């Protein structure tokens, strides 16, 4: 029969480590943080690691924090605009529209409010928190200082990845334009990577509030979205930060040497303004790149399959964890220690011998056998209650019992049920 | 602080149950099966539950089995064509081309061979096994006999689901046509549903072998794919089985009353042959439905997010299962029972008291406290080795020890390390 290896029982190490690091990032707190507590959010942790005070994008310096909601205990990402004074109450209400969008390539926006807790007048946006998210600028454009390659830009991005980004941004823009909004902020520093090749627009809605008084027509802003979309792709295709993207024609020519004509033409289409009154539409764009969207759809489904497979595998651990919790609660209980009828007899005795059988195997020399496969298989079978029979031997080796997993499972249920009777809790097992 | 509820520790019940049922289906074996053992596959289980002998699709009755590969222990789905005699060795080689495709909406094909083990001459196709897969015919078109609604057809399919199916079939057809093959078998009984709204073409390549000698031109077959695609969608949109789909115009008119003009026009496009020499292409089709593909992409990414969230949650169970396996291996080992220095002293003694602390809590009346939250939190902290200190009390209540999880974690490492020294195994923990 096919015996699974240890690595089959648990997640592949790389995925496990990534999830582990994400879990740690989520749990991280700063013991004596100088950051204030807000009305509904506490335990703020700064996520801007550069400490760069940059007002380029919003006209105000912005700071990003992880925070815990006092109401639900859930984590959020707060973006604070330093020194912003709200003059028009309507401005902040525009965020309500944004809340309606639930798009897989857009960081969900939950709320916006003003706060004085930072010692200034701040505007705060509440968004989904994505542990270990990095901006596309950080991932692709910021010189890598860690491996002595300090002044080397990162390697070029493959054409496939660029198309995946284009498909995803198109998906976000489509959802945004569909409810008569504009993204207004498509920039390599305001798009985050949250999983392999998976991106999300990260700072939509901010400019709707901050530049509310300009009341620019939505059509104009939507047309500008295409331009920003094009510039962003050009930055990525030429490894150029937005501030250095000064000569568009030269950049287009440069990228044309490294990538296909189709990609170049797509970017040129995005960059080229339409002659009024004609307007570009996202539907038109989506039709042009339809073939690449199909590829991205295929990749996304493959990713879901992978995750499903892993989850399938982990499921067993959950069941086995529950089972071991039960066994742990039954075996060797002190209060029944004197009471041989509880622990050295009948059901509980079998479960004790089973515990020895699972965990305390020794080889012919009396050395411990630590076989994770044996342990997991025994527990799996107990969980399933199979008909297979095993031989349990008393510690003095005087008595042996032939018993099926099915019977053991029943005994476990009885013994645990009896514990539960005396207890007020015990649900959820 | 925010304390998670029991349901936070484990998968949501519905997803858990579905995965559980899939796991059971995968594990299922038939004790005294009459089915033969093949050269490389054993433990066959019939998946055709209808026992209907139907030669309509392939010209031969076909039977579907789950089987275990003798080489790898992995599960596969075998499709057997009863009574097929291979006359041309080249025929079976066409399957090699199919192996090159790795598409998320196509059941992967691994191999094909002839077999005499069933007492006839059979042709066997080896494909991916998808536990609990159902055909679209079963899901949507077969009258539901279970709830007394025996003769009622199932309810109409929502337009959104139909577009999701169209996008996915288009993805599969695009991959197939791209390497100069044709699907040849797009039928409601040969498309399987493997997850929520997720479908896969299930019987491609079979006709390439069976009708090899006809040598029909690939262009002709590809054009026919569009027609079959259209008929399949029409069956689904009108709740009609293929055998009853006799009047296409009437059916188109019927579906036009329930669905949008865009959907109707899309199906009509698929059904309408082009005037030679013009050929329909899948790229053209994909452009027409681009907007819906974007929606499907969005849904697929949302699904991946959901699975990611669940996996994130389950991760902890895996760690805790490992930890309990270690504790189980250390506590109450018989061979060290006399040796107080092993089990009643120092490290192991602390770990024993810790076990009592985790599993054997009692309330003020001496009744067991079975708090899964307490158990999981204690084990989580032990796993993380936090600085938090707990008070462990000896069973005679004469001695108390104040000890941090960090120290306990070190002691667990030492105690387990010592066990491992004497053991040849113990890796993978
Ligand atoms: N929604 C989010 N969830 C989790 N982390 C985020 C989120 N948004 C941003 N971050 C983290 O915060 C960091 C700072 O974000 P920010 O948008 O300020 O980028 P920046 O590189 O500092 O750009 P700027 O110079 O414009 O401030 C990002 O690098 C990312 O790691
Ligand atoms: N790749 C697969 N993985 C798992 N189960 C499958 C797979 N393919 C088919 N099945 C199962 O086998 C059953 C029979 O498949 P089959 O293609 O024979 O459909 P059918 O309804 O019996 O059609 P027909 O009448 O043409 O034989 C399906 O209902 C499905 O449950
Ligand atoms: Mg910043
Ligand atoms: Mg069948």
Low-confidence stretches of chain A: 1-8, 147-151
- Please give the order of strands in the largest beta sheet of chain A: 1-2-3-5-4
Terminus-to-terminus distance of chain A:
32 Å
Work out the radius of gyration of chain A. Answer: 30 Å
Helix content of chain A: 40-55%
What oligomeric state do these chains adopt? homodimer
Which term fits the overall shape of chain A? elongated
Instruction: Please work out how many helical segments of chain A DSSP would assign.
Output: 16
The main sheet of chain A comes to: 5 strands, antiparallel
Ligands, ions, cofactors: adenosine-5'-triphosphate, magnesium ion
Taken in chain order, the helices and strands of chain A follow as: HHEEEHHEEEHHEEHHHHHHHHHEEH
Give me the secondary-structure category of chain A.
Answer: alpha+beta
What's the quick description here?
Chain A has 429 residues and is of the alpha+beta class. Helices cover 47% and strands 13% of the residues of chain A. The longest helix of chain A is centred in the last third of the chain and has 41 residues.
Q: Can you characterise this structure?
A:
The structure is a homodimer of 429-residue chains. Chain A contains 16 helices and 10 strands. In chain A, the strands form 3 sheets. The first copy, chain A, has a 5-stranded antiparallel beta sheet. The first copy, chain A, has a 3-stranded antiparallel beta sheet with strand order 6-7-8. In chain A, strands 9-10 form a two-stranded antiparallel sheet. In chain A, helix 6 runs antiparallel to helix 8, helix 8 packs across helix 9 and helix 8 runs antiparallel to helix 10. Helix content of chain A is 47%, strand content 13%. The first copy, chain A, is α+β, with helices and mostly antiparallel strands. The two termini of chain A are 32 Å apart. In chain A, strand 9 and strand 10 form a beta hairpin. Chains A and B meet through helix 1, helix 2, helix 6, helix 11 and helix 12 of A and helix 1, helix 2, helix 6, helix 11 and helix 12 of B. The site of one magnesium ion has 3 residues of chain B, from strand 2.
